[in-house]
Write a structure and sequence with these properties.
- There is one protein chain.
- The protein has four helices and no strands.
- The protein has helices spanning about 1-20, 25-35, 40-50, 55-70.
């Protein structure tokens, strides 16, 4: 029983890593949302990057502009 629990845990961890997005993919999603004037989705993507300790001048610039844009 304990052995099966370890296998399930291992599969769960590996599956989470397979579906995890790279910072470049998240930034690209944010940029797409920004270009489509979906400011809220862009903000969510950019803040997700900040929460993952990813930083760049372009990230802060785009995030600031997304907050500045009117609803």
């Amino acid at each position: 029983m304990n052995r099966y629990l370890h296998y399930i845990l291992l599969i769960t961890i590996l599956a989470g890593n397979v579906f995890a997005q790279s910072p470049e993919e998240i930034f690209s999603e944010g940029n797409s949302a920004y270009q489509n004037e979906d400011w809220q989705s862009a903000i969510i993507s950019y803040e997700k990057l900040l929460n993952q300790n990813y930083e760049s001048a372009a990230l802060y610039y785009n995030l600031g502009n997304a907050y500045f844009k009117p609803e």
